[in-house]
Predict the structure.
Amino acid sequence: MTFAEMRVIRCRVCGGNPHPHKHNGSIVNPYLDRLHPYPFEKLRALFNDVAAPPDYPPVRLSIGEPRHPTPPFIMEAVAANLSGLATYPSTQGGEALREAIAAWLSSRYQLAGIDPATQVLPVTGSREALFAFGQCVIDGTRAGAKVLCPNPFYQIYEGAALLAGAEPIFINNLPDDDFASDFGAIPASVMDDVQLVFVCSPGNPTGRVLTLEEWATLFDLSDRHGFVIAADECYSEIYFDDDKPLGALEAAQRLGRQDFRNVVMFSSLSKRSNVPGMRSGFVAGDARLLKAFLRYRTYHGCAMSPTIQAASVVAWQDEAHVAENRRLYREKFDEVSPVLAPYLRITRPQAGFYLWAGTPIADTEFARRLQAEYNVTVLPGSYLAREVDGVNPGNNFVRIALVAEMAECVEAAQRIARFCSTL
């Protein structure tokens, strides 16, 4: 394309003058104006004039940041591999890490023949990968491009859709429906425009795990309408009995989709191994999609440090610390749930470390008064959802992240109970 030809390209967003030009007074991507404030920005605004009582030490249960101690052997692996800081990392990741991840996938999900060279791609945490994957696979120049998301949801899904030029479509997860997503109820005329479906299983914030039957429905819809499935599975290793959560690739293999056609899953060490600061995860699945994603990431510039790769290898190879992590969460649910059950609508999640608790008053009022009166921070459920058909499925719920140490979680539960007893 010549420079003269480039000058006549019109903006596909507003149809205005050739680039560069201003949208809403500034030379920036106009899609940025469509982004909603992040839930924690809303929370800060909600608490803007709240003075927490000094008699109560703060307990923060609003952010899903693991706070159990990082296993010493992982920290030792970081320290032993600091020489990796002197080397540029490969976007594809080292062979040792890809093989460790493939071995973990084979063991955890009984997957046969995972190719670490073509079906596994290390990423710097699932958050950036989920967002970047949307930019890679969504064709925002296609009229009516849509992305399907659960509701409530992790806001990265919506941001990925909007900044790729697509419209996010939300499917309500309601308590009367066991927080399930009824994929089959979406009109075919809508599904024809869907390019990407984000699935979170185990779900954030509900902790629900998709069944094999639900996966079968989603795969069938993908075959008919041609969309890609991105399965966010970062909570998959926090469960409370021997019934391990079913994964997307595991479901695909059980249903005869050996090539994982149009399916990728995202996982991370953050929750599993208590290393959120390492920013270490992976994407696995359809080799064709991962080839395109690798090409995108080569330009994106987010390769994992060799030092972190070395520590990630030992983390993926060890399950003892993960079992201990599950035990700690299980014990916290055992202690906290009986304290809250007389006052809030709660059920033990299938997996994850959140209580999705129904409140006796509006969720925002509940969170604000709890902060003001007892210095316990929880996240209003309405901040995690969007109104669809006149319903915000997060209304009158709060998300309680049981990430603090046991004593803090129990103390917070007792304060919440005392607060609820005054309502």
